[in-house]
Amino acid sequence: MGTRKIIFPCVVGVVFMLTLFCMSTLENGALVMKKIVSSIYLGITDTSRAESRREELLRMLPQINTHGVDCSRIFVGDDEEIKKAQNITKVRTIPDRDFLRLTRHCTSYRRRGYMTKPVSDEEERYPIAYVIQIYKDLVQIERLLMAIYRPQNWYCINVDLSTGEDVHIGMIAIASCFDNIVINSVDVVWGRISLVEADLTCMQLLYNKNKDWKYLITLAGQMFPLKTNLDMVRIFKSLNGSNAVAAITKKRNPIRWSNLPTPSIPVRLVKGGCHFAVTRGFVRYVLFDKRARQFKKWASKTYIPDEHYVQSLSHSPKLEAPGGYTGWPENGENGYEEIMRYVKWCYDGSECHGKFVRCVCIFSVADLPRMANSHKMFVNKLYYDYEPMALTCMEQRHYQWTRQDILGMNDDRINITFYRNLPNVKHHIPSGLEN
């Protein structure tokens, strides 16, 4: 097939040259022919290079063992295939302690499935930064990292100090094989300001490390992407410089700060998810603006500040935080559309085929069909050791879509119009990323 692609332009080029030659003088015709030959040669060379690059990228994709399960049938709700996948309760994994051995030779380790070259020029020109909080299960962290890793992106991984030694040492070893992964270590106590401080410390590291990334995403280790890197680049472009920080006011749990005086800055107190995507301009604001620092001091005395610190800053028009929302958070009872996380709570009345752990649904294989066409960018949560085929099938679909990105076959996969029409996109404070 590749030979035909090269021969065809050659034949067309030769015919075209002869025609021009006959229509011109001998001297002029020779000059024209020389220029066309050079042009055709460059075209053939470019085509050959592009094909070589695609082949190299395709070889980087990891091979996912689906244990005889047809994951494509699961995503369309095939009950028989879902039951078949649910019967697989345990799959072979890598012990945390083995990562120190695997990373002794970085070149070999990177071949495990990391995309070490940009999949497209569009992605290379639009780097993304990540803050990832982890405290266990290095094997699952690696699977998340493989899916989202790109050489142009930047990653800060906060390893909780309470994490086991094997996880901590293993994560440092993995990071040592990449120039764009940095490790942070903050002792995180749930419900306290330490989780916010872990995010902010990573934001500072990433802000200082690289000046080119456009958006920053915060994740936890049990999340997994519902979109490819190229999808997310196009989604962020469509957000036009607005933050993706969903929040509500009606159910904001004011008891979390009821014993404190009102903040001294004009902030609208809201509650939102602890995972979000914000612009570089907003990160700069959070790190260096005097009022943001004042609000952090106030928030440090509240309960679960990771659900209202960044969220309130991004929903307070008077503070003029870049990318912030100028409208009212509520759009009905649940706030405006959250695009970061596909998550199910024990109190929201939605179905969970898996199990609830601390009120959050740990998704089952049977939950996959519902998230198949979601507008969300990440699913929260999947456990590699609970219905393991749920994570495995998510991986297989993700790499199938990445393959489509490599081959240029992804134009209709996401609905950009949906993202462009979000309330936060229509009503936001400029951040410098606007089209």
UniProtKB/TrEMBL annotation:
Keyword vocabulary terms for this entry: Glycoprotein, Glycosyltransferase, Membrane, Signal-anchor, Transferase, Transmembrane, Transmembrane helix
Membrane topology: Single-pass type II membrane protein
InterPro entries, alphabetized: Glyco_trans_14
Membrane-crossing segments per the record: 6-26
Key word Transport present: no
Record pathway: Protein modification; protein glycosylation
Recorded GO MF terms: acetylglucosaminyltransferase activity
Compartments, as annotated in UniProt: Membrane
GO CC list: membrane
Source species, domain of life: Eukaryota
Pfam family membership, one: Branch
Entry similarity comment: Belongs to the glycosyltransferase 14 family.
PANTHER family in the record: GLYCOSYLTRANSFERASE 14 FAMILY MEMBER, PROTEIN XYLOSYLTRANSFERASE
Protein name (Swiss-Prot/TrEMBL): Uncharacterized protein
Organism of origin: Paralvinella palmiformis
